[in-house]
Amino acid sequence: MKSKAISLKILPFLILLTINCMGQNMNNQFSLGGDWFYKLDEQRVGIKEKWFEKNNVRYDGNLKVPDFFETQISKEFDGWLWYFREFDFSSSPEEKKLALFFEGVDDDASIWINGKFVGEHKGYSERFYFDISQFVNDGKNFITVLVSDQGGPGGIYKPVYLKYYSTEQELFETEYSKQVARKSLDWVKEGIIYEIFPRSFSKEGTFKSIIKKLPYLKDLGVTILWIMPVHPIGEIKRKGNLGSPYSVKNYYEINPEYGTKEDFKELILEAHKSGFKVIIDEVLNHCAWDNELVKKYPQWFTHDKDGNMIPPNSSWTDVVDFNYDNPELRKYMIDVLKYWVKEFDIDGYRMDVSELVPTDFWEEARNELEKIKSQFWLSEGTLPEHHLKAFDMTYSWNVYDLFKPLLDDEKSPQTLFNTLKIEKYTFPKNSLRMRFNENHDKIRATEIFGYDGSLLTVAVVFSLNGVPLVHAGQEVGEKEFSSLFEKTEINWEQNLNTNEHYNLIKKLIQLRKNIPGLSLGEITPISIDDKILAFTNTNSGKGICAFFNFSKNVKSIDLNFVNELKSFKYDLKNITGRKFSIDEERMGRPADKIINLEPMGFAIFEISK
After folding, report:
1. Which of 142, 243, 409, 577 is a plausible cystine mate for 54, CB 3.0–4.6 Å?
2. What DSSP string runs through 446-470?
3. Crossing angle of helices 207-220 and 261-273, rounded to 10°
4. pLDDT for 70-110, tens place per residue?
5. Domain 21-172, what fold?
6. Which CATH class, in words, describes the domain spanning 522-608?
7. Are 214 and 274 a contacting pair, CB within 8 Å?
């Protein structure tokens, strides 16, 4: 049986682990995987005490990289975790630059080489690197990584390595970028996804209450309803009073708090009548401890060295981890997926923690499910290989993680274009990414980005290529975080006519519907001002032009001098935006092509050739 739990060996004396990079050359890439030393920093004193300097700290033990910290240590921990190791280095005869490359860290990372600060990266899951050419010495070098874990499992959970490079394309380009993503249905490519947690969606928290809201959702303009898990919730080791919907007690039943199977069928039927597509959240990486499968098929689960079933990590204590090495488990799960499509006519799935389940299983399952009906599958992950055969779409954490640094003036708005360029180097051609500024795993946008920031970032989401997500409640500026474990409720008692979030999102949805093809559009940067994010998103000669002011000053944009617009026609009478004005006259001459943006203001308009 596979074991995700790795025992910690506490060494009586501490010797830094060494890697001879020149002996591991594969395409100028040298793995830093294996044993690292670590130390927990519960008081967050490591920077002040200079733990990043060699021999300046006593380690707690050693860890394997890549892996989640909680997988190896039987302790739930959120906060600061330090990683340390040595490596040998010899300078490149080709005189290329040297990158320290991370495939993914959960959540934020700060890096030191030989006691010198290299940089920090904020955000979960996405690939990133630092040029460390000026920080390394011939011979032994000391690397320190501080991981700041914001919640759930954390650590250096994907590969990390050194790599020689000349260009970023050479550094980031994957084998998948030369391939083409699976072809998605038109309603997927042109979709507006709306995420619903039945418990918090209304006071009743039922399927029938969602049915009552369908006319409202139709008027808003969303097209794909994503319903979070609908199954009964486990009671053993439950978190909170009501428990997480991601702790599934029975894959073939409906959570009685939401209603009956007949109620769910009615919801799907009425949604289809109203023109919606419906996908449901499915949780196949783990299940509740009181799911009948635990006693019936113990061989389907992950065990530790003592033979005990274990959760995926020490944070997810309310669930037990499946072992997909078992063919019978794979068949069972494919049958589960078939059941909900056949019996309820759902239109697809959002697959929870999809990166933790083998990709070949997803590919096999998708192939079987497509024999029933064409569907939409959303991966809660960022793996480029998911786009080839199994999934239509992955999460765009890369863009989400930029919003806070941009709003806090820690990064230039132009950073977004480099992020999108790296995305092209990484993913198959025509890959669909789900863009968002809010989802159920994160604090509400109005809280984390502020009132103005939540409006500006959702406008960026709808202006980019990819498929936009609206998290239920964000369209009315909801501030309360929807707990997975307790009852919360969206405040619907608002005047929609005067609600700025509602009216903006409704306009943005209509803008997307006016211009088919934006999800696979070409993003062309417009260089105006370092604090202005400006670009066009076009497909087949039609698209949008967007300007966003991240500065603290009013900015004027004279469209007469924007070269990227010279070949397009446009009409500024139908701008979607806020905190902007258009000059009718300047210096006694017509100036109807000058847009003034206040701080946090933005303007988006249609363009065509």
Report:
1. 142
2. HHHTHHHHHHHHHHHHHHSSSEEEE
3. 10
4. 888 777 788 999 999 999 988 766 778 999 999 999 889 99
5. Jelly Rolls (2.60.120)
6. mainly beta
7. yes
